[in-house]
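Two proteins follow. First one:
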Amino acid sequence: MATFYCELAWLGGDGAAADVIIETDGDRIVAVTPDAGSAPAAATELAGLTLPGLANAHSHAFHRVLRGRTHGGTGSFWTWRDQMYAVAAALDPERYHRLARAVFGEMVRAGITVVGEFHYIHHGANGVLYEPPNAMGRAVIAAAADAGLRLTLLDTCYLHGGIGVALDETQQRFSDGDASTWAARATALADELDSSPMVRIGAAVHSVRAVDPAAMEVVAAWAAARDAPLHAHVSEQPGENEQCLDAYGVTPVELLAERGLLGPRFTAVHATHVTEGNADRLGAAGAWCCFCPTTEKELADGIGPARTLVDAGARLALGSDSHAVIDLLEEARAVELHERLSTNVRGSFNPGALLTMATAHGYASLGWPEGGRLEAGTLADFVTIGADSVRTAGLAGDPLGVVVFAAGAADVRHVVVGGEVVVADSRHVRLDVESELRSALAEIGP
């Protein structure tokens, strides 16, 4: 057992509690006691505001290579995608393990305790299978374990280069050829990891562009049979909506609904250009929507209809996606600030609501409903934001407001995952993250 004394802690709602003692046993919280007075003699003292662990519900670890290489020019999502494919073509299991390990280490340093890796680089050049066939997935899983990060590997079905378009040379690495072959490979990986306490296997449909309707049904059935989370990129750009309407006569959300994907286990990633009617469909299904604001603005994709989706009954989670930055607090405040820019109205989402998106909602969308809260019986994953920087000075006056609207990844002081201290005094206890990032990035490109 271990005991932690929190100067301040967010236990839900709109405020912070003082003098909170968190007791853990193994990977679970067994007791949370607010207003406890002074710290017990054996407790680890956490100065600042302690939150449930942050959940990164949408990640492509290899996109981290593009930071600083794609931001300054013109172009669009589609020209950026060409640069991203060049990075994908350079990866093999060994390189990917080193890169993902460093990126996951950066995430943990930023207070992220669980990540949903939207994983679609499955095979070697020209689609040749590795031995074993899940070598790339195993590399990602090993990287998360090395970094001390909880993982949902969202094994992604990717079959076409666009609606009615053949795969190009790089895209062949993403494809299993057909949905039944994808399902067999995903099953083998899920069975192999069945008893892991830190890894869960989910499913993903890359997009309506990359997976045909009949194949979508196979992926949905696989996820349903395992009660696994199911994610898909949805309406990320207007062009995706137009292509879907031209090919199938319906929007992406309508197509996914027709094929049985929508439901409480489903997460629509981005949902930037869903219409009001589509928002109603997502809400009625009890679906999640994962916003990735730093990526969506970096790629000029647009501002998603956050308030419309929530009012319709959908629930929002957050992701860092392409890792233009890795900072879930930045993603959280961007939801509210983008809403202000698009509506000229302040206060659509208060700090407590934004923190819920970054914690409990993200955990649930990734298939860990027992995480993202500081309560007895929940996963012992939590993060402490320091009050000792120029950004967080005066935190005690309005802890949630200061953390959500001013703090960032650099203010993370302490991280616990599964009851184990992974970051102490702002340093990862296992990895030299900066060194590993420099080495892995240099290995893959200039």
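Second one, unrelated to the first:
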Amino acid sequence: MVLWAGLVMIARWLQNLRLIDSPEGASLQSVAFSLRGGLSPWLALMLFLLGVALAIYFYRRESAKLTPAVRALLTGLRLLLIALVLLLLMRPVLLANYAGERPRGVIVLIDASQSMTIADRRVSATDWQRVADVRGLDEALQAERAGPVSRAQLVLDALDNDKLALLKRLRAKGPLSVLLFDRQVRPASDDWRKNYRPEGTQTALADSIHDVLTRQANEPPAAIVVISDGQDTASTRTLDEVARECSEKGVALHIWGVGSTEAGVLAFKEVRVPKTIFLDDKPDQKDDPIEVPVRFRCRGFKSGTVELTLKVGEDSITETFPVQEGENLSRTIQLVPRKGKDGERPVTVRLRLREQPDVGDRSEHVVAVKNARIKVLYVENTPRREYKFIQPALDRDRRLLLRLHLAQGDPRLAEQGTDPESGSMYVEKFPENFPEPDPKDPDRRPYDLVILGDVPLSVLGERGLRALTTWVKEGGGLVTIAGRYHLPGDYVNTPLAEVLPVEFRREEFDAASEARATPYRPVLTYDGENSPALTLDDKPEVSKELWTKELWVNVPGFYWYYPVLDVRPGATILLAHPEKKVGKRPDEKPLPLIASQFYGKGQVLYLGIEETWRWRDNTGDKYTARFWGQIALQLGLPHLLGNARRSQLELERGEPILGRPGAVKGRFLDSNYEPITRATVRAQLVHLDAKDDSTSRREVVLQRIVGQPGEYRAALPHDQPGRHELRILPGDGLEVATMPFRVELPPRHELLERGLAEDALRSLAVTAGGRFYREEDLITLPDQVEPRKQPFTLRSEVLLWGPLPFVLFVLLITAEWILRKFSNLS
């Protein structure tokens, strides 16, 4: 007990001398003494006793006359020196244990992701007043006049506002630490406010809060003040999980939600306006409506009514429907325009929120109006089964004017089931020439499309075959449907063989082998997915699903195909056999069932199948009629319009997405409609939404595709979101062409315009025992942070062989030396 009291007295004496660092607010709980040297206490004791004996012996033999007191004093000093040296050799340590409480820290966690760069669209006076409160303005109108303010700038304005004094007042609650977070948490530098540029491509709000709790596991903070818009795009944990974790550890979350809940986005992703509409010139004839499918996104609106308006010329129609949150919403709007002459009409499609008219999007187009219909000549040898379903489907399509020729069929069969008003009629023989159009005689108008079935070469004759080839080269459309008997086998080494997109030879088909044929399901290629002719639904994803699954629910598949040898250079495979290949290795390609190519001005489509009638099982002519109607429209319409373009551009690789490189494919003809042969074609890529004109334009070079005359391709970076336009500039004999497109942000991207996630942040704060704040509440935030103290213990070690023992050693040896001098000792 006495020893412990002595140690405590020594410890307090050392503490008073500031040789022991004692924490503020802590009291001394216990003291211990420890020896950490290599000299054992027993050996030290033996050495000390030896030193005692030697000191007494030598001082008793001193020749000088010393009084007993001086002799005893000198001996004692020598013994103290020996004891001190032995003690230092044993390395004594004094251990002092303190206990107390100290304030917990306060963590300020600030969002540094790209979403904080968004300038919210503020539409209400209340929302503008919040900006005014933070920026220290007297009136909301002043803030509104200043223009949109980014979320990041609003944070800086709040922290620099002397009236709020957020950081200063929070520092009074406990030690303050400022951290920045996006995907990860990092300490903020001393001058972080000067360099605060949110650039994080992902936000992990929940994971960042968990990270702070993990770092402070032994001494959790009193509170975490979160400054964020609440967008979480990368966390592996949920906000509810970290809220419960904060509650269990007694860490309150105080959250300032930055942004506007009233902000949102309502924008088009795709608007599919037909290039041409057909209006019957007969006053009493009712026209079909124009159908415009649109895809759009809607985010950030809790309620309201969306207005979708279609305007064609002077006619318009508006549909309304409730707000629905979604990234890929779709709608189709229809309008029957008034009759009129051939020409062009402006088309405007507008999307807006009724409650906030300035929120929305618009898309402008031009549509060609035609009173005349596409004139189609369908030629077959006999009325085979495919013919029996194609003929009525084409005849019922009011965009088409059908003419029929059956080489070996009764002419009356060609007229069966036709609508007298459609103008369908039987043609006596295949034309030996295609006359120039005569406005006074519609029947003299050349055909826009020829569909050639399984017809013998003799039906066309040499003159008819030559006329057909020339007509296609001048811009006519041609569809060939292979058969078991004549086409394409009869046309080997004829002019038509050069027109078709496939290389072939005559094949003989055995009835017995066909009876044993197993069904197969065709595969839609990438080019087929993007071909308007093969689109079976307005939604691309639904159309793809139809080709892969729905068409074959009640149909086992196709059984027959024509085994061609290869695909011609420049041809495109749209539908392929799932297993068979053509060509030579290593350039093998899937066997084409549907392939297309351009021949001069015209386009040619080859079908190596004759079983599309099978789709009618349990679906009627729903898909058959659309399939053949679209084929007729795509191949016949250019000839009807008479403006076959020499420069054509189209996107490859699906919808343009930011960060995913894409490609553009072009087809270019010279003034004689011959494919150009130069190595490159230069184009200009314009970013229509660019804020800086100096970076809005860049050059794109299209490279020639080997083996495909007139075909060119170039990569597109897709590194800037928004509206773009690729332009082929005039010069070098090229026709001017433009291709508009929009680069979309990928799902969950930081720059997607989302409003403040108020509900999620409010729930997070309440569950964690804190509060949620808007700008008008910031003045109260520091006052709501409750100071808390954390119990702690501290063990302080004092090495007694430090400066104090050294000073004591010098004093002892000096005292002995002085005393010996005064005693006349050497």
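SUMMARY FIELD: Residues 374-641 form a domain with the Rossmann fold fold (CATH 3.40.50). The radius of gyration is 45 Å.
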